[in-house]
Amino acid sequence: MTDALAALGWSAFEADQLGDADLGLTPARISSVNRRNVNALGTDAPLRLVADPGISTASFAVGDWVLCDRAAAHLVRRLDRRSLLQRGAEHRTGQRQLIAANLDTLFIVTSCNADFNVARLERYLALAHDADIAPAILLTKADQTEEADGYIVQARALGDLPVLAINAKGADVTDTLASWCGPGQTVALVGSSGVGKTTLANALTGRTDATQDIREDDARGRHTTTKRSLHALPTGGWLIDTPGMRGLAVADVTAGIDATFPEISALTGACRFRDCLHDGEPGCAVQAAVEAGLIDADRVRRYRKLRAEDAQATESVAASHARKRRTGKSGKPPARRR
Ligand SMILES: Nc1nc2c(ncn2[C@@H]2O[C@H](COP(=O)(O)OP(=O)(O)OP(=O)(O)O)[C@@H](O)[C@H]2O)c(=O)[nH]1
Ligand SMILES: [Zn+2]
């Protein structure tokens, strides 16, 4: 592994996937995804790559590692991902939209004010755990309150993870976050509107303006495409902008929810009924633990709510897939014959 690749985030995980057949191919990391091609960073230059016809660029995510034939600007294959952040399935199509790949850290941003909401944090934690990304909670606007400590205590109760109260506008914020933003490390920011994501992104990247649109030239002229993109940080790391991460629907993230509530999921196997909803059924190990004062009743309530929402969304995804199998269609109207 060269240092130049490591600087892009290449690790043993990627190196282990290379075989003899890959000799002569060049690794590159996708920095943005266009409709017909992808932009990628090679160790010495940016590349624009085209995959085989029939492979939709929607199957690639910013942050993906790919192997390419440089001379032909051909994207030959994508390597397996260490982590993958996806947006909950859309009800209509059942498709999950890829947001970012190979993130090391998800900065979950909330503020030391009315935005702070434990249930919302647990939702983000479930998404992070499901995506195999290590979460860290950033509590912004600590400079505007005397009660930052109270928020820290509540956030720390959510698990064994970093919790930092910060001033996103402070001069020291880059230093405070440096240990997650060092050479080859990739981070993203999620959180509600107004909590300071743009402020933090600007501080980390050293830029001052809003994110530039990425434009793609084609025969019909220039048009704005996805703004998700990979930004180099002066500290050596990478930030992936995730403007597509608006909604916070959980769908098909059961494993992430279980990882977010380990004290509860550890007990569910001991319930009498395998499909126990922990809602007053006889022989429920979870309710027994609540009654014994071993686990928090509020956590159980939020766990049940999140699981129920996830199950419902997952069902509608499954229903959509089943419909597609029945009709043999992608959910789109059939193409007109010429
Ligand atoms: N005092 C103080 N102000 C902050 C802090 N973080 C953000 N702000 C201010 O809060 C406002 C919203 O910050 P943004 O960075 O635009 O928030 P955002 O999360 O990007 O919001 P969206 O773009 O709507 O998603 C701005 O006026 C910031 O200057 C902080 O830690 N301390
Ligand atoms: Zn139960």
UniProtKB/TrEMBL annotation:
It holds the Pfam family RsgA_GTPase. GO terms for biological process: ribosomal small subunit biogenesis. GTP binds at residues 140-143, 191-199. Residues 101-246 form the EngC GTPase domain. Its EC number is 3.6.1.-. One of its GO terms (cellular component) is cytoplasm. Residues 91-248 form the CP-type G domain. CDD domains: YjeQ_EngC. It comes from the Bacteria. Binds 1 zinc ion per subunit. The keyword Mitochondrion does not apply. Its cofactor is Zn(2+). Residues 321-338 have a biased composition (Basic residues). Keywords: Cytoplasm, GTP-binding, Hydrolase, Metal-binding, Nucleotide-binding, Ribosome biogenesis, RNA-binding, rRNA-binding, Zinc. Residues 308-338 are annotated as: Disordered. It is an enzyme of class 3 (hydrolase). One of several proteins that assist in the late maturation steps of the functional core of the 30S ribosomal subunit. Helps release RbfA from mature subunits. May play a role in the assembly of ribosomal proteins into the subunit. Circularly permuted GTPase that catalyzes slow GTP hydrolysis, GTPase activity is stimulated by the 30S ribosomal subunit. HAMAP family: GTPase_RsgA. This is Small ribosomal subunit biogenesis GTPase RsgA. The lineage of its organism: Bacteria, Pseudomonadati, Pseudomonadota, Alphaproteobacteria, Rhodobacterales.
